[in-house]
Amino acid sequence: MPNDSSTVDYRALLEEEQRDLRAKLEELGIGGDSLTYDSNFADSSQVTAERGEVEALAGQLRETLSGVERALGKLSGGKYGDCEDCGRPIDPLRLEAKPAARYCIDCVAKH
After folding, report:
1. Model-level pTM?
2. 34, 46, 70, 109: most buried, per Cβ within 10 A?
3. Residue 3 pLDDT more than 50?
4. CA dihedral in degrees (79, 84, 89, 95; nearest 10)?
């Protein structure tokens, strides 16, 4: 039976995603905005490569977390579910799949 969009708890979906993203950042060794590395690595090129990969992943996670937090703010402000480009409502199925969506499907295609 398909979900009725009026019964979807978007706040719960967003808060769960927020917790997951924060946990992933913690697993990477990010306590705040800084990364920590094992100083016992013998090969500095290995350390450099690892740092680059971890920093890229951390950047993606932070960007996604920022979007989730923006969506939570919009939810609290009564603007959640409105496309940031055209202002029309975002399809509930899109929001269920991607709760932090900023744009309707038509506007996503333009970006």
Report:
1. 0.75
2. 70
3. no
4. -90
